[in-house]
Write a structure and sequence with these properties.
Elements (H helix, E strand, L loop, with lengths): L3 E6 L6 H12 L3 E3 L18 H4 L4 E2 L12 H15 L5 E5 L3 H9 L10 H14 L1 H11 L1 H6 L5 H14 L3 H4 L10 E7 L3 H18 L1 H8 L14 H7 L5 H24 L5 E3 L4 H10 L3
Parallel strand pairs: 1-4, 1-5, 2-3, 2-4, 5-6
Length: 301
């Protein structure tokens, strides 16, 4: 019997955590997180990291195993997750992969294109000079010019991903979005891809409510406790960058909160675009738990 990896993804605040816990309980299995910001132990409130109560005794892997001082990318995740899956599939016939980081999900499911060029130190240094002088906006504009398709999909607050995409474009003379559509690597397990969705208004309301809850839970205090690491890549993400601007006296707290809501909604739209380009995903509302369980059951050998 071939083991099955069930991918359950979707935009931020759509309701992945609660549903995945219930699915995991039904099939008596474990969960792997593909949320690239939940990897870091210092980032809790702003990443909506599930607490012990929310996990309901279901093992969650790749949650809080890194420090924001660590360098970790999708390639590292691919290797580590494949190694973990090999062990988990000795115990379970089904394992759940969840999170909203499309690049990390694709890395595990499909692998990376082996023909992509390596890093160019001289070029990377030139981009870094521009970044330090003009901020992340210069990278965003550069990518928009070089690869408008990937620009619409990528997390525009993630400088590291912007650096890499621009670098590949400039080295090869081709769009990164074109080059990364290479041969999918074979995996020793079946993959079922499920994406969750809600009506736009419903999703945006949930996002706004979640931001308010994060603020009430102490997100500002969390950011203050790690602001000395503000230049680390892990903190260049929605919810942290805006409050760092506030702590730098660039904007008021109310303005920061509104920016978080706006940027989170924009991020959710980019996530949806990322998953919609892959026709392997089967879309469900989070309330359709019974249908999702039936779908999973039908894919078990």
């Amino acid at each position: 019997m071939q083991p099955l990896l069930v991918v359950i993804t979707g935009p931020t605040a759509v309701g992945k955590t609660d549903l995945c816990v219930q699915i995991a309980k039904h099939f008596n299995t474990e969960i792997i997180s593909a949320d690239s910001r939940q990897f870091y132990k210092e980032l809790c409130i702003g990443t909506a990291k599930p607490c012990t109560k929310e996990m309901q005794n279901i093992p969650h892997h790749f949650v809080g195993q890194l420090s924001i001082k660590d360098n970790y990318n999708a390639n590292d995740f691919e290797k580590d997750a494949l190694s973990l899956l090999k062990k988990l599939f000795e115990i379970h016939n089904i394992v759940i992969l969840t999170g909203g980081s499309g690049l990390f999900i694709d890395a595990l499911c499909d692998g990376f294109d082996e023909d992509l060029p390596g890093s160019n130190t001289e070029l990377r240094n030139k981009l870094d000079v521009l970044y330090k002088k003009y901020g992340i906006e210069i990278l965003q504009e550069k990518l928009k010019q070089l690869d408008p398709i990937f620009y619409k999909e990528v997390d525009l607050s993630n400088a590291k991903r912007l650096f890499r995409a621009i670098e590949v474009c400039l080295i090869t003379g081709k769009p990164f979005s074109e080059l990364r559509k290479g041969q999918v690597q074979n995996r020793p397990f079946k993959i079922l891809k499920i994406a969750l969705s809600r009506d736009r208004e419903e999703l945006f309301d949930r996002i706004n409510q979640r931001v308010d809850i994060m603020i009430n839970q102490g997100l500002l205090k969390e950011v203050k406790s790690i602001i000395s690491y503000k230049n680390h890549n892990a903190l260049k993400t929605v919810g942290y960058t805006e409050l760092i601007e506030h702590l730098n006296n660039e904007i008021s707290l109310d303005q920061a909160i509104e920016k978080i809501k706006t940027n989170t909604r924009r991020y959710a739209k980019r996530q949806i675009n990322w998953f919609m380009r892959n026709n392997e995903y089967k879309w469900y509302h989070p309330s359709e738990e019974k249908k999702i369980i039936e779908l999973i059951q039908s894919n078990i050998n």
